[in-house]
């Protein structure tokens, strides 16, 4: 059995791939997010906070993320938001 990678097959450890043409929609703690992987920089994800008050979002990079890791990343972001202003806490 060959150990060489086969074209078109992602390694099992690689997370899901979502592009601008194929984003994922995720609701976390009642907040809506659209997640897209940057085509020019794989394994960099743009998280658009669709239900937020200020058309706000963030980018996370590093190793490929699984859906539970994306959810945790969103929760960490929301924990840093000041509920009174809707912006990052000072």
SSE sequence, one letter per element: EEEEH
- N- to C-terminal distance: 56 Å
In spatial order, strands of the major sheet run 1-2-3-4
Number of helices: 1
Structural class, by secondary structure, is alpha+beta
> Quick one: biggest sheet?
4 strands, antiparallel
Provide structural commentary:
The protein is globular. The chain is 14% helix and 27% strand. The termini are far apart. Residues 8-14 have low confidence and may be disordered. The relative contact order is 0.18. Strands 1-2-3-4 form a 4-stranded antiparallel sheet, with helices on one face. The chain is of the alpha+beta class and 90 residues long. The chain has a domain at 24-79.
What is shown here, in short?
Helices cover 14% and strands 27% of the residues. It has 90 residues and is an alpha+beta fold. The protein starts with 23 loop residues before the first strand and ends in an 11-residue tail after the last helix.
């Amino acid at each position: 059995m060959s150990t060489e990678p086969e074209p078109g097959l992602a390694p099992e450890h690689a997370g899901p791939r979502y592009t601008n043409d194929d984003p994922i929609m995720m609701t976390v703690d009642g907040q809506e997010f659209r997640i897209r992987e940057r085509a020019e920089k794989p394994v960099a994800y743009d998280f658009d906070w669709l239900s937020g008050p200020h058309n706000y979002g963030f980018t996370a990079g590093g190793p490929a993320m699984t859906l539970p890791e994306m959810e945790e990343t969103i929760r960490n972001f929301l924990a840093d938001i000041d509920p009174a202003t809707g912006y990052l806490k000072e």
